[in-house]
Amino acid sequence: MATKTRAKVGDIFNSLELVDLGEVVNKNRLEVFKCYCGNTFTSFINNVKKGNTSSCGCNKATCQEVKWRSTYLDRGFTKKDQSTPEYLAWRNMRARCYNQKDISYPNYGAIGITVCDRWLESFDNFLTDVGPRPNKEYSLDRNNSNGNYEPGNVSWREPAWQARNKGKVKNTTSNYKGVSFEGKKWRARIKGSDGKPVSLGSFEEEIDAAYAVDTFLLGEFGEDCPWTNKRLGLLVETQT
User: What is the largest CA-CA distance in the chain?
Assistant: First the structure.
């Protein structure tokens, strides 16, 4: 009959480190473990081994951040990490800006969008500044769609946010975001904070429709809204 080997201090179970041996309670050993966040706690070892206990009960987001840093930064980047969404985002970001064969190059590198020196050759620097992707629904986005890939202008965004952050759509009848020529007038229409299109009316002058769009966006998202025509560099005239 095989003899069971008792766990020893230093053993790792589902990312939890056994730091002190406890006592037997109801035929199950109550041991002391160290969580990713640094806290120590007691738990039955069978619960830890089975994955029923995976943390000390700390904030999951905080624990995930600590775990992520341990995975990517403390031990160094490895080839295995090249399949992670963060690495793929970094690789694709560079390709859009510097690979002329990339399908997205005409909308990025060809018009002068670049990657800052800090990120260009360092995945670790990029990951340190941008952080882990919150979930699979998020992707990399620039706060100012006319700006470069650099700290302060890049973050993980949901698709609905990114859709509002696009510049002027190609092949439209207007020079401005949220404006189109319909019938005999310029129509202003843009998405609100709930992601639904809002009609702002029709105007004789194209620039008046653009101002209507910007006024709505500033009221909806605040003075720091990054996707107004003015912030995107599309609206440079002064209304008279």
Answer: 93
Query: In which domain, by residue range, is 18 found?
Result: 12-59
pTM of the model: 0.42
Domain annotation covers residue 232: no
Query: Are residues 52 and 16 part of one domain?
Result: yes
CATH code assigned at 197: 3.30.730
| Beta-bridge partners for 187 | 180, 202
In this structure, what token pair is assigned to residue 208? Answer: 């008046």
- The rounded distance, in Å, linking the Cα atoms of 232 and 166 is 9
Residue 238, in any domain of the structure: no
Model pLDDT for residues 130-166, shown as the tens digit of each residue: 988 887 777 788 877 778 999 988 888 765 454 455 5
C-alpha to C-alpha distance for 173 and 237, rounded to whole angstroms: 19
